[in-house]
Write a structure and sequence with these properties.
Layout (H helix, E strand, L loop, with lengths): L7 E7 L7 H12 L6 E5 L1 H10 L4 H11 L6 E2 L7 E2 L1 H10 L12 E7 L4 E5 L4 H8 L9 E3 L2 E5 L15 E7 L13 H14 L11 E3 L15 H17 L5
Parallel strand pairs: 1-2, 1-9, 2-5, 9-10
Antiparallel strand pairs: 3-4, 5-6, 5-8, 7-8
Helix pairs in contact: 1-3, 1-7, 2-5
Length: 257
Amino acid sequence: MTNICKKYKTGLVLSGGGARGFAHLGAIKALNENGIYPDIVAGTSAGSIVGAFYCDGFQPEEIFSFFIEKGIYKYIEFIIPNRGLLKINGLVNLIENNLNSKYFDDLKIPFYATATDLNNARPVYFSSGELVPAIIASSSIPVIFQPFEINGVTYVDGGLTDNLPVEPLKNICEKIIGINVNPIGYQKNFNKLIDIAERTFHIAFNAGIFDKISSLDLYIQPEKLKNMGIFDVSKSPEIFNAGYQAALNALKKTNFI
């Protein structure tokens, strides 16, 4: 990418990936330790949750500790299957009660949350208005979670249409870093319905990502995440470390700094 005078020096793009999103925190920690601090962030699903807290002024390890201590997935309640298997009212309250910012404009760092407009089958990049509804809309994995409505529009996980949301940062950043926590490896067995669902999500959410790599100045993809599921919270320390090491390795291979 040609470095010309643009509004922001460094943009950061965070993919979705469920529990794999803890790798974003490890990667951001490594970037910060190397003097790299994003001026603007765009995230999808888990990336939108991480991005919102980071843009709100929380440090990576602080965010990690917070979600581990709170037990993020215990806030997800099972309901009788209708439009989704789970509802995330508890997660709404958890995020709402712990973010300092209520609106996008309150954030310390500008931020985009990517969701999929289910009615019009297109990605939407929220950057203004109320923060929490946009984050939840961005994180509502189809079928697994109920869709989320904002102003009469039905939204599901942004990963369905744009799991690595480079688009909103393309023309406003001198350099863009992309972190994809959704690598796909070989999988032999599918013993449970959730195994098939997870695999389907990984494949769908990874579509089109590699076409975007040319738009990035630094691409980070923790390959160790290939064998970890989107609900593998028990492996969160390992996931965090995978992100940290992947970022360090990517920095060593480039002249980004």
